[in-house]
């Protein structure tokens, strides 16, 4: 009990120290450290916001074992760019209903941000955004995926994403008949 | 649920050609359902449904997307005629909504038009009814979603719609806006019951809708038409009463020209015309206007001000008003009369709590207005020329 109490006090002191800093340090699965503005992290990620509020942020680098260094670098980069690009008025209104507001088309810089990513980097970032509860980044990356599908035939989509067609010909025929209203094969 | 990238013995047995190069990772199929649904919900509706053929993993995903984006563009190709296209759009949308899983819709965008020209016997003359069925589905989807606890449809904007529904209800809708280009059925009263609603925008209609459960309402933008047969003092009172919790009200009052005509008709024609004019009754008593105790911002549109008692009665019933905006542009209502109404019987603006007075006025009115403001004891105001309106900050 005594030991626990002592530990609790140390934790308290560390929390205070943490509260004084305006950045948080994040540690990727491969041990690399990244600094990100505390304000941006809390605003853009529900998970980081929860960790900051709950005092579970580690000064020496909060372990994010699920996220590789390349993806985490992109996450941090996105947070910084986001902080710099949004006018303050929009920021205020967006923070009110960030999760409930209807989807807004990606902005120019957000498009560029995801366009430069390799196929694997894009999917790593989708997974990182999902893990960290970053609604906007998840929307922007998911939107990018949809654009990679848009206007393409099923064969072309399978090729882009390496999707294996595991249907039999008979099954495919059955689906096309069942959903003829979407295919116009009637 | 089938595992995404597992080799399927059935496919191998049938000798199906492999599209995926051996060894290449399939990143998209490794995503969780929620994330995958989020991605494909950005697709337009037809392509969304067609993702079912990609692989078994995808077979039923389209049924659970939280967003539907159905536009006529997807049907522009491969049809020979306008008629064929509209048949396909209807068939498609009906099937999509019928076969999708009962999951909540965050957003439902339905964009289509059909030619105005319709033969009387045209089977598609019921096109608005179809759209209404679809909207009904959208609203129902939120009601269900309340039970499942997911996010819900929160905004519904209707533009240019014929609304034949007699009841609009939802447990989750926050914004309902019906614009001026929409029109209502005339034989039945529309009933709107949305306890979660915070914004309501309604155009003038022949019969004022019955509003129920408006307890969450913050902002309303409504028009009242006194020309129509259905308008009564009591009806206007009931309608405004259901809005009386709002803090922001944008009120338009339609029908003045018609009233002038009827008065003229009644006075100068020796017919047995019954002078049963709602507007005249409204002028004589203030029973049509309930107390708006929460109201802090009031905007009165063009036509309200040609019936200047509207302003006076509203001021009596809005004790906590802080900002008043009047838009007298199209009427022969001058800044002078606004100020005189504001001064009221006590002869001072200070009888109200009004801090900001916004008057949209023409350039020529400004000098007159400034003189009047000075005479009223107002010492400070800002002139915003860019928006062509006068912002007056009243100092007590």
From TrEMBL, chain A:
- Give every SKP1 component dimerisation domain span: 136-182
Q: Indicate the quaternary assembly.
A: Part of a SCF (SKP1-cullin-F-box) protein ligase complex.
Provide this UniProt record's keywords sorted from A to Z: Ubl conjugation pathway
Q: Where is this region: Disordered?
A: 1-21
Described purpose of this protein according to its UniProt entry: Involved in ubiquitination and subsequent proteasomal degradation of target proteins. Together with CUL1, RBX1 and a F-box protein, it forms a SCF E3 ubiquitin ligase complex. The functional specificity of this complex depends on the type of F-box protein. In the SCF complex, it serves as an adapter that links the F-box protein to CUL1.
Q: Which SUPFAM superfamilies match?
A: POZ domain, Skp1 dimerisation domain-like
- PANTHER family, per database record: SKP1 (PTHR11165)
Location of the SKP1 component POZ domain: 23-84
What pathway annotation does it carry?
Protein modification; protein ubiquitination
The protein's organism comes out as Digitaria exilis
Superkingdom: Eukaryota
Q: What is the name listed in the Swiss-Prot or TrEMBL entry for this protein? A: SKP1-like protein
From TrEMBL, chain B:
F-box domain: from which residue to which, for each copy? 31-66
Q: InterPro entries this protein is in?
A: F-box-like_dom_sf, F-box_dom, F-box_SCFL_complex_component, LRR_dom_sf
What top-level branch of life does the organism fall under?
Eukaryota
The record's Pfam families line, in alphabetical order, gives: F-box
Check the record and name the PANTHER family matching this protein.
Answer: OS02G0188900 PROTEIN, OS11G0201299 PROTEIN
- In its UniProt entry, what is this protein called? F-box domain-containing protein
Q: Which organism is it from?
A: Digitaria exilis
